[in-house]
Amino acid sequence: MTLPQEKSLKRREKMAQVCLFGMFLAYVILFFSWCALKFHYFVYNDFDLAIHDQIIWNILHGRIFNSILGIDFLGNHVHFISFLIAPFYWVIPHPLFLLFLQTAFLAAGIFPLYRLARVYLDLQVSLIICLIYLLFPGLGFTNLYEFHPTAFAVFFLLSAAYYFFVENFSMFSVFMLLSVLCQENISLIFFMWGVYALFLKRKLKWVVWPAGLGFFYFLLCVYIILPTFNKNILDFFNIYAPLGNSLGAVAKTCVLHPVRVLSILLEPNKIHYLIQLFDSVTFIPLFAPLTLLPVFLIFLQHLLSVRLQEVSLHFHYTAELIPFIFIGVIFGIKKIFELGPKFKYLIYIFLFNALAVNFAIGPHFHMIREGKSYFSNFRSLRNEILLKQIPPDAAVVTTFKYLSHLSHHYQLYSFHYVYSGFYTLSRKLFHLPDQVQYALIDFNDFLMVSQFYRLDNYRNINAFLKQGSWGTMDVQNTVVLFKKGIPNRYPLYNFVDDRKLPSNSADWLIDQSIKMYGYGLSLRLDRMEVIFYWKLLRHEFKDINLFIDFIDKNGRLLGRQYRPLCYRIWPTQAWQKNQLIEEHQYISIPPKFKGRLKSLMIGFFDFKTGKLFSTNSKDALGRFRIDVPEVSKGAYVR
């Protein structure tokens, strides 16, 4: 190569590095900003971020117990990487720091990916592969779904792959060790990596070292570390129930009953998942299928699970697969290019397809549109008002969306255990410690009422409230802040007799089974209180919920809220015939409705099916109207 050509190549490489860093920076800014917005507006509605934030917070304080899980955290997953994160977390002890680290490490995967691609492909193609990596739907959804240590493994595995293919054994070993620290199942990748090295006819050390470490580390985790710290609370083999209740039983079933295993692997939702996964990279890895061998057992792990989240791009379970999908992309393109120069133009089809698929199913192009539906300063303010009333050292139980905002409380518990009666992935009964003094409960918490709902779960809520002598401190829409041993500042519902007459009589008939015979309406300083008077005419096992439409002076819909009757504490399936109930609903009016709200339209639906209930109203949706008196604009502001 002549000197001018060398200078030109170095200049192009330098520009590629600048481009690469620009792509990294753009991704980090976009995704971390989105994560920060999600956190600020209480949109993290699972408990994974809270679990890991409390884990690392506790490590800094000399503890490994996690109150949300109810066990020492190493009994859930073997995340030794948490001990390495803790010193950095000490500098910025906040959940947002974990979200930033996760974003940065996922984006940083482009650096070892680019270096590996450049070993086999030209500069332009390598950059295109890195762009498609950053646009990969599985990467974006992993980034946006809570926080998980497996996200770090994406960078570590890609780095291990680079050093494997350039045959740098010592650096490969470093990143292999870092990878397995992220989670116990990653050791299975290295066990199969040793098999992969055998197919490539590598020297013995490349076969024995990863396979041996992977095999023995996995057994150490499954048979010693996890059982020692688990205390028989969590049973992950529940998600493989059709195959067996232990690792040995599952393995035995896979060998002796291949037809049963195949029927599980070929379920429609799993085929759909695989199509989405590989369509995002135009199925290029299938041109180099051997590169997927290291994650063969991880594919089996996810595809054999009955947990639907494991076969969805919208969760973090794709993280371990991403590095090998893109290693397959590199070697798949290499094989295609070897067919002849004209096939090099396929890279542009590859890029176009990746953009099209991402636009259809990925998060990148849908963030702003989706954000409008859940980013609300009003809701954020209401949530902050509730959180400020809880002392920083208090023991507290709460629903999902508040967990990550309270994760520095040593005694923090998830209310869904109370609601369901059991720990997650367990048949062990849950008992809330007596030390808990505060309960912050959103009775419309999305995950709780979608994943853990049962008609009779209200019994667990009733038992919880009775045993604790809880009183209401504050109510914001469907969110109630309770404290032990205080009188109710805000009544939720009462049983009354026919001597108590409502302020306004009514004759609403819902599903021929419930009558609303009156209501009252009052304006507090910061919210509207609507009192409903119900009577059960005919007992049925239906969970009747209501929706409230906010209507302006011109009859236009301003907004809608959904609410359970009697806050799911005493739902309609628990009501007794001829029972009279006085229910208090507290409605915080969004600032954008001020001066515009004229009336409320109340409708009814079946919570289990979503179907509207018939009523004796002439309204097309079966709604009833309650007029709202004129008030000053400041009346709804605390």
Kindly report how far apart the N and C termini lie: 74 Å
Mean pLDDT over the residues: 90
Provide the domain count: 3
Quick one: overall form? elongated
Low-pLDDT segments, ≥5 res: 632-638
Structure commentary:
The protein is α+β, with helices and mostly antiparallel strands and 638 residues long. The protein has three domains: 12-370, no CATH class; 377-484, no CATH class; 493-636, Coagulation Factor XIII, Chain A, domain 1. The protein is built from 23 helices and 16 strands. The strands form four sheets. It has a five-stranded mixed β-sheet with strand order 4-3-5-7-6. Helix 9 runs parallel beside helix 11. The protein is elongated, with a radius of gyration of 28 Å.
Explain briefly what this protein structure is.
The chain is of the alpha+beta class and 638 residues long. The protein has helices spanning 3-40, 48-60, 81-91, 95-108, 110-120, 123-135, 137-144, 150-165, 169-180, 186-199, 204-230, 247-256, 258-265, 268-279, 296-303, 322-337, 346-361, 367-374, 377-387, 400-403, 415-420, 446-451, 458-468, and strands at 65-66, 71-72, 396-398, 412-414, 438-442, 470-476, 479-484, 493-496, 504-510, 514-523, 528-536, 544-552, 557-564, 580-587, 597-606, 624-627.
